[in-house]
Amino acid sequence: MNQLGRPLDSRTALVTGSSRGIGEATARALDEAGARVILTGRTVADLERVASGLGNEPVIIPADLSEAGEGTRLAEAAISMVGCVDVLVNNAGFPIRGAPEELVEAELDRILAVNVRSILMLVAGLGPAMIERGSGSIINVSSVASLRGPIGRVAYTATKGAIDAMTRALAADWGPKGVRVNAVNPGIIKTAMFESRQEDMTDVAQAMARRVALGRLGEPRDVADVIVFLASDAASYVTGQTIAIDGGMVHAMTVQEGSG
Ligand SMILES: NC(=O)c1ccc[n+]([C@@H]2O[C@H](COP(=O)([O-])OP(=O)(O)OC[C@H]3O[C@@H](n4cnc5c(N)ncnc54)[C@H](OP(=O)(O)O)[C@@H]3O)[C@@H](O)[C@H]2O)c1
To answer: How confident is the model at residue 193 (pLDDT cuts 50, 70, 90)?
Structure first.
């Protein structure tokens, strides 16, 4: 493959939640683009399955990001195994659903730990080496939930809103030091997370799916391709952005037959 097809040759990328779904597709796309990928998640068998399909000497570092100290330990392990990490993709995350009046503190602590705290601790652990080299790209996986007010997902939406806000703040802090920070906001992507919502998929969610301007739900690769772009030098003047990858679901208004 020519240089144009491998824009991340000789770079190293850490992708959290790369055992399946969007993270797996991102690991594959980064590997195809030339990067050496560090895979991480809790399910070692799935990480090994993903690693077996990669060509650039992938590294596996299992971690449960709900545990205190795991973000820092993961960052230290990554640096000791590969040196500087050039690209950090903070993808691991999960939703909780339910009415606001049914929120449980322990569940809140867990979703904040995985969806928010782990990102900040990985940034704190891996950022200094990026700053020392004067370059790096951090991509946070948010959600279109942060751009709307989805019903029954207040805690998940809070975590994704925090991701958008920290993306802008971090871009301001580290832009002068050569480190770019962006977020992608997927719409409805066909992964295990999407499958898990099938049983209790509400009328609202089904209506949203019908309103995707491009007329289809997203594939993990749709998100992965934008992440590779943000990781590469092609995006060298892009920072502090939150980019919806939703087929036009949130901002394009598709008018249903019979509506005004
Ligand atoms: N799918 C969608 O429609 C959609 C839409 C908007 C945003 N997103 C966001 O996209 C990201 C990926 O979603 P997905 O659909 O690919 O979900 P998924 O298929 O459920 O995958 C989630 C990944 O996160 C990892 N993970 C979960 N809890 C973890 C923990 N405690 N410690 C370490 N890793 C953990 C999982 O690995 P293990 O289970 O092996 O630990 C898995 O690799 C999430 O941040 C999600 O909020 C998804």
So the answer is: confident
